[in-house]
Target: DUF4194 domain-containing protein
Amino acid sequence: MDTELKTLCARLLAQRVLPRADPLVRRALMDEAFRAELDERLAGTGLRLVENPYAEHVALALAPEMGEPVFGAGETWQNNTLGLPRDGVALLVVLWALIILPKRERQIARVEAGREGQSDMFGALKPLATGEAVSCGVSEDALYADFGRKLGGRTRFSANLGRLANLGFVTRRNKWIEEGPLLDVLIDYSQLAPRIIEGALSDLLSQRRGQPAEAAAAEPEPTPAGQTEEA
Model:
């Protein structure tokens, strides 16, 4: 087991991300003793394995107690260790909200529908819905039209999108952006989703609901038939 643990740790460090279907990853997710030893070894270096049952990959991240020593090591607090500027992080959050949030809704809906229709005693052990069947992408041109100017303009937008693709958060093909192996696993859904749905998205929807009333109040009242405005 020692050799397998060394191999898995080394591959995670070298490749940054591994598919759940990998034999050693599957063992780490299913073998409690193997996972406990893996967690202990990673914790000794300030790291932890990150995974969720809906994601198709696993990766490494900083242990929670290492946040301040790593991100607060300089004169100012770093927002990431990947070299992303602030507008790059903003673009990453936007892409996560557009791709992962809808995907997760479809995955949860499939799981709930499957539970309602279960008639066998082992139905709960079936794998959760993942993959391209529930994932979606976004148009690069549409994304720029909606957010490009707020994210630094065309040059900054393209540069940051290229960085995200190189890091493995997204893939780009023919002006179409899709989920990369890291997008769903390195961002904590339980923390970010409520902030977007109950925070930013809620504010946006409230603004949109208020716009028609404000617009109607701003419009001049129609002039009765047969009269002119001067009258």
